[in-house]
Amino acid sequence: MITSAAKATVIRPVAEVVTSVQTLEGGGFPVRRPFPTARLPQVDPFLLFDHLGPVPWGPGEGIGAPDHPHRGFETVTYLLSGEMQHKDSAGNSGTLRPGDVQWMTAGAGVVHSELPSAAFMKSGGTMNGFQIWVNLPARAKMARPRYQDIPAERIPEAESADGKVKVRVIAGESLGKAAVIDTHTPILYLHFTLQPGAEIVQPAPENYNALAYVITGEVRAGDENRAVREGQMARFGGGGVVRLGVDVNAAGPAELLLLAGQPLNEPVERHGPFVMNSREEIVQAIHDSQEGRMGKIAI
Ligand code: MN
Questions:
Q1: Would the pTM of this model clear 0.90, i.e. be above it?
Q2: How many angstroms does the Cα of residue 86 sit away from the middle of ligand 1?
Q3: Residue ranges per domain, the chain?
Q4: How many angstroms is it from 114 CA to the middle of ligand 1?
Q5: Which of 99, 100, 106, 221 is spaced 20 to 30 Å from 117 by Cα?
Q6: Using an 8 Å Cβ cutoff, are 134 and 45 in contact?
Q7: What is the pLDDT tens value at each position of the chain, 299 positions in all?
Q8: Ligand 1 centroid vs 110 CA: distance in angstroms?
Q9: Distance from Cα 142 to the centre of ligand 1, integer Å
Q10: What class, spelled out in words, does domain 4-290 have in CATH?
């Protein structure tokens, strides 16, 4: 018999390695997207994972996503380089710079715009970041919209004793540091930088779904040390911890995002920017949006 204490230390295997598809989003900016695809519609509670860039834009060239609505979930934006300006129908406005996180709960509905900032448009530069959609449970889909704008300096950072593992704790806990962001359901969102020879064994409760996306370099993941390369995502099977490392002989460090969360196990009906539990709720969302009930940007 395996006790629950023993299960908590089981290293999760890699269930599959997914290579991102490349597509255009918003006004036409390129993204790498491990999901949703026809084969992998979601990793419950995560609905979408977009790596925006890295894309070099000349002055005046930057492209973003002008005014559009959302209902029923959260959009989480994390910038590595470049500068974005977000505005919404609730009167919020914020500039995202490298290392900043914006955790937006669309809830009952917002209209927002996500555009390169005026300063970025003038200078040009490399835009690089992520947008992740986190589903909301049925009870929170019509919640009041909320913004959590967290500047880089407020994101907790930790390092392993040997100095080979560095982590930025966006949600959840790692290496003894807890995130400042509040989530509706339990979520782990960690940005790791691993030097050659690094290894991290990160607790990710057994009832969570877990994935790792490699930003740069090559990572060894799971109980069999599967190679996961830049632009690829590992989806993990069951277990209590996620093991990630970099070969001691690797040419350089690797960076990755580790996401894990408690699945909602609820019906998912999606239609573009709306994600609800039923067809009827989607029809209502489209109607409410067309009638202007999700507001408009006035700033
Ligand atoms: Mn959006």
A1: yes
A2: 9
A3: 4-290
A4: 7
A5: 106
A6: yes
A7: 556 677 788 999 999 999 999 999 988 999 999 999 999 999 999 999 999 989 999 999 999 999 999 999 999 999 999 999 999 998 888 899 999 999 999 999 999 999 999 999 999 999 999 999 999 999 999 999 999 999 999 999 999 999 999 999 999 999 999 999 999 999 999 999 999 999 999 999 999 999 999 999 999 999 999 999 999 999 999 999 999 999 999 999 999 999 999 999 999 999 999 999 999 999 999 999 999 989 888 76
A8: 9
A9: 17
A10: mainly beta
